[in-house]
Design a protein that fits this description.
Length: 402
């Protein structure tokens, strides 16, 4: 956003609560790699410069990439400057921080959607002898108490953590809710290559049949491993991970699971097949079929005929529970009536219509399917900065997309 504001000659300041790439430094586990290939880190004025475009960045490499971009953009940056309040004043907005107060005509909230871990209330019923941590707190298997581990949630983070912990030699139980299954590779190409070339990642928010549903979907059940292996439930089952249904109740040290596991897996399979059908149709229509491998369909998810509906945590040797149950934004410092009953921002493609001059970035499917990817924020920033320029009365050309 700063790159685009500077391009439009709009005076601004960037306020960062910690260091550049703060969340990547402080809330990621040690072995995490990006889910997207390095070539897909395309930002305004900068892209991948290495010799392994199809590889996946480590956390250290991701931090270095963002630091490099910050040097290139050279924004008017204030680090260690957490915002404590944003409120309306007579000429726009008043932004209060620990380093001072700003009056401005426009505010862009780029704090993202993953600020506060969503840990279910039933966590309060977990016996005190069992350690609990979120994916933002997990670092590596060696940091856990000896013994078995239950991972709750099977989107990308939960599947990766379950894979890593089990490979370390600890028994793992994975409690599975709704998830989005996808292969890492399809027809010899990375799944994100297909999402990019087919235009699926560029699908707009105002052309989706059920936007609320699209914004609530979890990330693909994939990982950025060098061997490009899958981490779907079949792969985890083959490793020896115990797959159970959604964690529904904890009572007297015993876990109860939903009986919907088979239905959820069948739904995930169906969605994966629909995605692959879309890719196949696009390849055929665009003369790509002969240049890639033949179509194929992954094996349906294998589920026991009678998945367990209960587990005695003590007898199972569960010593740690990792909550991979998602995150939500933190707007506790926002003194404006722009949130719905669940605390989510009311906006139209990032434009907060109830508060002229207020914008939000980094939320799922904000303006495009790729909005929460590094590859997607640049396009969103271009659109929103043009709308902001119009709000300020700054001439910015005709690149605002309504």
């Amino acid at each position: 956003m700063s790159w685009w504001l500077a391009k439009r000659s709009i005076d601004h300041v960037v306020l960062e609560r910690g260091e550049v790439a703060n969340t990547w430094r402080t809330q990621r586990w040690d072995s995490l790699t990006l889910l997207t290939p390095s070539w897909q880190s395309r930002l305004p004025g900068h892209g991948y410069e290495g010799d392994d475009p199809d590889g996946f960045r480590t956390m250290d490499e991701t931090i270095s990439f963002i630091e490099r971009y910050a040097k290139i953009v050279s924004p008017p940056l204030r680090t260690h400057c957490p915002v404590t309040s944003v409120a309306i004043d007579s000429d726009g907005y008043q932004v209060v921080t620990e380093q001072g107060t700003w009056q401005c005509k426009g505010v862009v909230l780029a704090s993202g959607a993953f600020n506060i871990a969503q840990v279910p209330k039933l966590s309060q019923e977990i016996p005190s002898r069992i350690a609990q941590l979120t994916t933002a707190e997990y670092r590596n298997p060696g940091s856990l108490e000896p013994g078995g581990v239950m991972v709750v949630g099977a989107a990308a983070s939960g599947a990766q953590i379950a894979d890593e912990i089990h490979r370390s030699g600890r028994p793992v139980t994975l409690a599975v809710g709704e998830h989005v299954r996808a292969p890492r590779m399809y027809r010899g190409r990375d799944i994100q290559w297909w999402m990019d070339v087919t235009g699926l990642n560029d699908e707009r928010y105002d052309r989706v049949e059920n936007l609320r549903r699209a914004r609530a979907l979890s990330s693909f059940q994939i990982a950025g491993y060098r061997d490009r292996r899958n981490i779907d439930l079949n792969a985890l089952t083959s490793l020896g991970v115990s797959i159970v249904g959604r964690l529904a109740v904890i009572r007297d040290g015993k876990a109860q699971f939903s009986g919907s596991l088979r239905n959820l897996c069948e739904l995930a399979d169906l969605k994966q097949y629909r995605l692959l059908n879309t890719i196949d149709e696009w390849a055929a229509a665009n003369g790509m079929s002969d240049g890639v491998e033949p179509p194929h369909r992954p094996e349906p998810t294998r589920i026991d005929a009678s998945p367990p509906l209960g587990l005695d945590l003590r007898r199972a040797g569960i010593k740690t529970i990792v909550w991979a149950t998602g995150f939500r934004p933190d707007y506790s410092w926002l003194q404006l009536p722009v949130l719905d009953a669940k605390g989510n921002m009311r906006h139209d493609g990032g434009v907060v219509t109830e508060a002229p001059g207020l914008y939000v970035m980094g939320l799922p499917f904000l303006r495009r399917r790729k909005s929460t990817l590094i590859d997607g924020v640049g396009d969103d920033a271009r659109d929103l900065s043009a709308h902001l320029a119009s709000h300020l009365g700054v001439r910015s050309g005709s690149d605002w997309v309504a």
